[in-house]
Design a protein that fits this description.
mainly alpha, 109 residues, globular
C-alpha cells in the first residue's frame, strides 16, 4: 500500500536531505498525499486518479479564494481557517508523489 511504501521511502531517502527539505517532504506527505492515497495499492495510483486529485485541490483552492474575497472564512475540522493549496504546493506534492512512485517502479513494488 502507498502508506507503507511512502513512509519507508521517506525514512530511507531523507537521510541525505537538509532538515528543511525533510520537514517539507514530511509535511507534504502527511497533509496532501497520505489523506488521498494512503489505502491505495501502488499499482492503483495511475495518471487518472492523480489528475482528479490535483484538479480537486485546485478547485478547493479556488473556492477558498472566492470565499475569502467575499469575507467568508471557511473552517477546517479543528475550527481553524482553511488555507488554500497554492499552485506551488500542488506542484511540489505531485513531484513528491512522482518521486515515490518512480522508486516503487524501480524496486518492482
Amino acid at each position: 500500500f502507498f502508506h507503507e511504501f511512502a513512509t519507508f521511502w521517506l525514512d530511507r531517502h531523507t537521510v541525505d536531505l537538509a532538515g528543511n527539505t525533510k520537514a517539507n517532504y514530511s509535511h507534504i506527505l502527511a497533509r496532501y498525499l497520505l489523506p488521498e492515497f494512503k489505502d491505495h495499492r501502488l499499482s492503483e495510483i495511475t495518471h487518472e486518479p492523480v489528475q482528479r486529485w490535483r484538479d480537486r485541490l485546485r478547485q478547493e483552492a479556488e473556492a477558498l479564494k472566492l470565499a475569502k474575497q467575499s469575507g467568508v472564512s471557511l473552517l477546517d475540522r479543528r475550527g481553524k481557517p482553511k488555507r488554500a493549496f497554492g499552485a506551488r504546493t500542488i506542484k511540489e506534492a505531485v513531484r513528491l508523489l512522482g518521486q515515490i512512485l518512480e522508486r516503487a517502479v524501480e524496486s518492482e513494488h
